[in-house]
Amino acid sequence: MVDEIKIVGVVGAGTMGMGICEVAAANGCKVLVHDINETFAQQAHEAMAGRLKKRVIKGKITQDQADDITKAVKVVKSLDAFQVCDLVVEAVVENLDVKKQLFQQLEQLVSENALLATNTSSISVTAIAAALQSPSRLFGLHFFNPAPVMKLVEIIKGLKTEETHVQMAKRLCKQWKKIPVVAQSTPGFIVNRVARPYYGEALKLYQEQMASIIHLDTVLSKAAGFRMGPFALMDLIGIDVNFAVSQTVYREMYNDPRYKPSLIQGEMVHANQLGRKTDEGFYPYGETAKKAKPDYLHSDAQFDRFTVPDDMTFLSRMFSEFEYDQRQWQGDKIIISGCQLVMSNGMTAKQVEKKDGMPTCLVDLSFDYMKAECLSLAFSPKVDVFMKNRIVALINHIGKDVLECPDQPGMIANRTIAMLINEAADAVFNGVCSEDDVDLAMKYGVNYPKGLLAFAEEIGWQHVADTLEHLQHWFGDDRYRLSPYVRSQL
């Protein structure tokens, strides 16, 4: 194995391939790029130079840096040029046979000490490596789009991948100013596996007629704290692309109900309603498209005395920092005008009201209630108009919008986040990755506000377990089964 990566070969001049070229070149490597269509490769190189020029104009890099990167990347006509490479990264079409044939060629051309990596996002690294005489030299190097911007790289270890190659890949990623995480070659690796519930649960909520698309997106972005709502994100990714990944993970997980694809997505793919690229997805796009608006509640009612717990809770802290003379610090509940505010734990507001014997307002989960732009609430039957108006008025007073959610188990954000935490926990339990790496992967691969396991520690593992067990009892669906890892934390 080479001691240092100085010359990198990249096969495939698409968006991801050229992104990898730019990353390598920006960090001192010489880069050779080959594409089956040489004209396309030359155009891609010119487009990269154009993007770098825009970054110079914005003051993000100097002209000298842009020139150095452009000069360091050279388009080559033949794979034969890769004989000098220390590392070759494949970024071609997601087709197992195509990748196998390519690596068989590369294995005959490059030095026996050179490393071989695939940028596949969903295909088994072990399956690709099976085509090689020395499968131990192949590993996954999964960048995220856009590669020059996104910090995360998943290093995928196939069944026969040499551990020293994995360690070399980690060192290289750090030299390239990336955050490496290591995963076993399993369906979806870390990010595409753990993120499935973000799309799948939102689609299931919509199919259950829980709320409108804009309502669901607003709760998960402005209330929960995700950067984009799932429907807007699927429109950006491409509904066909997202659906294909869902189908692949579901099939390769032997039809585990946790990964079941959505009938809604299937119908949209049939209709060629694929998102931004077709000007119509879950939202309309184009010049005449009207932007949907959430249906916020607002109240000018005069709220009076309210009670917050003596000891600060995860929920009550958001009421602690504004000045109000009639706030009382006592007991263990938040009470506004005779109605208790409780963080959703998978029970309905009606169930909580019956258990506690008082009107109940459930508050959907947020990664950070202090930063949340809005709150999602569900009310029990005994919450009258007087109570509801004063609760809404108080929340408006502290600078947050309010959305009302139907009284269903888990609400929207709590249900989704509990599923994500369970999936992250199960990935660790089944040896896909470490606890640290799953949290790093979700923070830097898909920009989650916090690591999922770290957040479970913050709100309490019992809260996660309660939510999922209530959901499984309500729906009778095995998709909500609790991971043994979660049980071990109780």
Describe the structure.
About 40% of the residues lie in helices and about 15% in strands. By secondary structure, the chain is of the alpha/beta class. The chain has 3 domains: about 5-185, NAD(P)-binding Rossmann-like Domain (Rossmann fold), CATH 3.40.50; about 190-295 and about 415-490, Orthogonal Bundle (N-(1-d-carboxylethyl)-l-norvaline Dehydrogenase, domain 2), CATH 1.10.1040.50; about 305-405, Transcription Regulator spoIIAA (2-Layer Sandwich), CATH 3.30.750.190. The chain has an 8-stranded mixed beta sheet with strand order 3-2-1-4-5-6-7-8, sandwiched between helices. The protein has a 7-stranded mixed beta sheet with strand order 10-9-11-12-13-14-15, with helices on both faces. Helix 2 runs antiparallel to helix 3, helix 8 (about 195-205) runs antiparallel to helix 15 (about 415-430) and helix 15 crosses helix 18 (about 460-475). It starts with 6 loop residues before the first strand and ends with a helix.
